[in-house]
Write a structure and sequence with these properties.
Length: 176
């Protein structure tokens, strides 16, 4: 059996744990603790260390899904998780103060680890701030010469989470 790995990154509350729970065909593992940084996000629980889930494909291939902890104090986990990853799904919470720089921060950090890392960006809660839309993300990326796909998603829906994976796998296939 072939093992492949995809990493989910993004700020606290962006939906990493939710996406992996929606996708995983095994009981997903997650290391949730009480959230003591409620100034960053109001949610009750947050992930330390990582999330883990798996998708199995018909051809006997297994895709391992890893969620990075959002808080910066767990940034030491990122190189460990990024090693050998097919690509990174960066989830963005559009309702945050500066979601573009949230996105940029994760892209920069993971690109430092692997310059050729394929990325897909999933923007959630797009309706929370109608003043700016998906095109702002696309513009910001193209200004930096980053041709990564940007999708509006609600990762609580399995088909949205799966779309992110499909796009990432398609990119990987096409660059081989
Ligand atoms: N409205 C909305 N809520 C979302 C979306 N994605 C995640 N959530 C909710 O946001 C909360 C935080 O998600 P979580 O997966 O714990 O974020 P994590 O910190 O990235 O692991 C959960 O209550 C999710 O149900 C989205 O696209 N839209
Ligand atoms: Mg989490």
């Amino acid at each position: 059996m072939q093992y492949r790995k995809v990493v989910f990154a993004g700020t606290m509350g962006a939906g990493k744990t939710t996406a992996i729970r929606a996708l995983s065909e095994i009981a997903p593992m997650s290391t949730e603790v009480a959230n003591r940084q409620t100034e960053l996000h109001g949610k009750a629980q947050t992930t330390v260390a990582l999330d883990y889930g798996e998708i199995r494909f018909g051809d006997g291939e297994k895709l391992c899904l890893y969620g990075t902890p959002g808080q910066d104090r767990f940034a030491f986990m990122w190189p460990i998780l990024a090693r050998g990853a097919l690509g990174v799904v960066v989830l963005v919470d559009h309702s945050q103060v500066d979601p573009i720089s949230d996105m940029t921060r994760y892209l920069e950090r993971f690109a430092e680890l692997n310059r050729d890392m394929p990325f897909v960006i999933g923007v959630g809660r797009l309706d929370s701030n109608p003043a700016f839309g998906l095109n702002q993300y696309v513009d910001s990326l193209s200004q930096r010469g980053w041709p990564y796909p940007v999708l509006a998603v609600d990762v609580r829906r399995k088909e949205d989470a799966l779309l992110l994976i499909d796009v990432l796998l398609t990119m990987v296939e096409n660059t081989r």
